[in-house]
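We modelled the chain as a single entity of 213 amino acids. Its sequence is:
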Amino acid sequence: MVEGDILGKLAQQEIALRIGVLALQGDFREHMNMVERCGHEPIKVRLPEEVELIDGLIIPGGESTTFGIIMERYNLIAPIRKAASSGMPVFGTCAGAIVIAKEIEGSNQQRLSIMDISVRRNAFGRQVNSFEADIEIKQLGELPFRAVFIRAPIITKVGEGVEVLATFEGKIVLAKQGNIIACAFHPELTNDLRLHQYFISLCETYAKGRMNK
């Protein structure tokens, strides 16, 4: 089966997945809606013990500095790092991509530091400069993905083992390192489920692995 055939793969799955969405602030409800539309159960994650209950975690858009502060306050950083290192998929979108990065240009803000990338915040300008664009993501098939950029970051450097999945005007806007995906735009603000389905396919593999242990 080709990697882009996400719909066919998920249609054959035999397990129900619990997809966590970090629900501290930002647009977590939109991600939860996408998870439901993909046929899975979205779980709000706000406490450390909830990280153990999920098969994958989405970190939504919002304010990356606020995410760091609240995650530290609620003792979420260590559990998420531990889960990610054990193979649990993590999907960071916009501010979420900043939070998972090892390096944030010009900032020492609190972060998860679980993906070997450097990011630049607000790389396309302020909210008034928001825009949409079609981008090619070969893992999702031939049809372009309509990406929504709102105060979006870019990935300026990638470490060894990081795969670039998409660029826009020569800038990296989507990348994957093993079980972790960083996305500069907002896939939850479209009607296109393919990127969430791609992430959920990683969660399925992880969940089946845990069941077989």
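As a brief sanity check on the tokenised model: The chain has one domain: 6-208. Residues 6-13 have pLDDT under 50 and may be disordered.
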